Amino acid sequence: MFILKTSSSISQVARLQSPKFRHTGSNCTLTFWYYNYGESVGAAEMQLFVDGLKQPTVLWRAYYNEGNQWLKAVIQLGRLPRPFQLSLDKISLGFYDGVSAIDDITFEYCALPPPTLTCEGPNHFWCRDTKACIDSLLVCDLVDNCGDGSDEDNCNPDLQCNFENGLCNWEQDSEDDFDWIRVQGPTPTLNTGPLKDHTTGTARGHYLYMESSKPHQFQDKAVLLSPLFNPCGKRACIFRFHYHMFGKQVYKLSVFQRTVSNSKGWLLWYKFGNQGNRWIRQTLYISSVKPFQIMVKGTVGDGFTGDIGLDDISFLGCTLYNGNLPTISTTTSAPSVPATLPMNNCTEEEFVCRASGHCIHMIQKCDFRPDCFDKSDESACVMELCDFEDKNHCGWHQPALEQMSGNDTIHTMNIFKWELGRGANLYPGQAKHCPLIDHTMCTEEGWYLFTDSSNGEFGDTADIATPVISLTGPKCKIVFWNHMNGLTIGSLELLYKTGNKTSKLWTQSGSQGPQWNRAEVFLGIRSNFQVIFRAKRGVSYMGDVAVDDITFEDCSPLLNPGRPCTSEEFTCTNKYCIPKDKLCDFVNDCADNSDESPTI
């Protein structure tokens, strides 16, 4: 189907309408291919008209010439309980010159679950009227999965929030940088954030979002606090939520758990980067022997196209705690760790947790997941994120300097090496070849790591390395920002070292301009290795190399859940569970490639 110009009016609209549909199931998705090519081809948008609602909901937009190619659009419809109709509008203001076309329109997973004769077992729920059999994890999650609403009957409203009437019993944290915003319809910035909420699937519904535009800056944080919960018994407390992370500069959404009111808690889950224009469901299993609280933290990225949405938060198998969490003294910067190892029965192939004497496998040390209660297994490791503020090296070290004895310290002053720097400390003229501002704070007071090329000679190299990393997961990558500006820049390399073997993962040479540049390097599954930054000096002093905001993303190894996989998950050959939408995506999510098998 394509558009022919038939009118000479200034404002022209071509409209293609769908039949009227009765309803959809919770996983309904619409896909189509579109072609929008020409110098003055105009905009296009898909609108949703729901019976009983006066205002339509915009589901998709194309604003401009997108090249001589067919492109795929994927629109998440979700559960729509009322009759509805879709309208594809092509809008041209003034002169129309181009070709617009649409083809291969497909509705997928739009039917309600089929009725069944039986529905047995504790992991299933039998819908009252439709007689469908659904996973028990879908009960009381603010989504009508049954089609008759019976899976959402008799639910505790204190354990749910769809933000239609405010924040429910959740609160904004007063210790963060800014607040989450409750909104309807699209966020103010184009090409980022949701167009609609998850609860209703329309612009009428409400959700929370984190605004990434100014005055907010890179790594500013907005934190949402849950009510307090009682300790969990043998059955875990289950936390479900839907998140939306769409935009080129989306940074991070993370979930923490804490048992002390003035602590930052410990990380349960996080997601980095653009995840597409869709709401994504996440389920977390929480255990605790103490009353606890959940913290949802959004972190601003490096630009205004980084809005993050949050909707339909619910808990299952949890009970509210009528009390307050304890506090700890703010003068204590970290939990005390015994100087000597406690009594233990650990073998030489096991690591001894400092506080408890508990034994864990040595492969669990320095794997980006704390397995000891005191986190001592991750204490002498590289940090997941390092911004070098407070002059902290985050575990990165320079092997060549450490080999020098104390008597040789004076000789290290004039060698080519990595050191902490900031714009406020630069001497006149140095800003021409060294960063005037850091990447984290974007100020002259912010710190970064750099090699001072006024030291050393042409061809000298400086290495800074992580401690040995025991194991990483299948999606592990390292993201960092580099600054390479000057007339005689040498090179910067990212190396991978295991044993005595070193290989190159990434390299950049020569001047790259007076700005911070982002680099991303895939690591994947690796074991017992180090990551090394190697800077090579150019022919003169006008060539400093700097790095900042080094992040290891999605690097913790897969964790066997110790439970059967749900109907929304795929069971890997190694018994790990992954979401079914990760199948056949050319990524080894299972760590054994069973999710990419041709026999699936």
Short characterization:
With 600 residues, the chain is an all-beta fold.
Provide an overview of this structure.
The protein is mainly β and 600 residues long. The chain folds into five domains: 11-108, Jelly Rolls (Sandwich), CATH 2.60.120.200; 157-316, Jelly Rolls; 352-379, no CATH class; 382-403 and 415-553, Jelly Rolls (Sandwich), CATH 2.60.120.200; 561-599, Low-density Lipoprotein Receptor, CATH 4.10.400. Helices cover 1% and strands 36% of the residues. It has one helix and 35 strands. The chain has one helix at residues 399-402; strands at residues 11-17, 29-40, 43-50, 57-62, 71-76, 84-93, 97-108, 124-126, 133-135, 160-161, 171-172, 181-184, 206-210, 221-229, 237-245, 252-258, 266-272, 280-286, 292-299, 308-316, 350-352, 359-361, 385-386, 418-421, 448-451, 461-465, 469-471, 477-484, 491-498, 501-509, 517-522, 527-536, 545-553, 569-571, 577-579. The strands form nine sheets. Strands 10, 12, 13, 15, 18 and 20 form a six-stranded antiparallel beta sheet that branches. Strands 23, 24, 25, 28, 31 and 33 form a six-stranded antiparallel beta sheet that branches. The protein has a five-stranded antiparallel beta sheet with strand order 11-14-19-16-17, with no helix packed on it. Strand 16 (252-258) and strand 17 (266-272) form a beta hairpin. It starts with 10 loop residues before the first strand and ends in a 21-residue tail after the last strand. The relative contact order is 0.08.
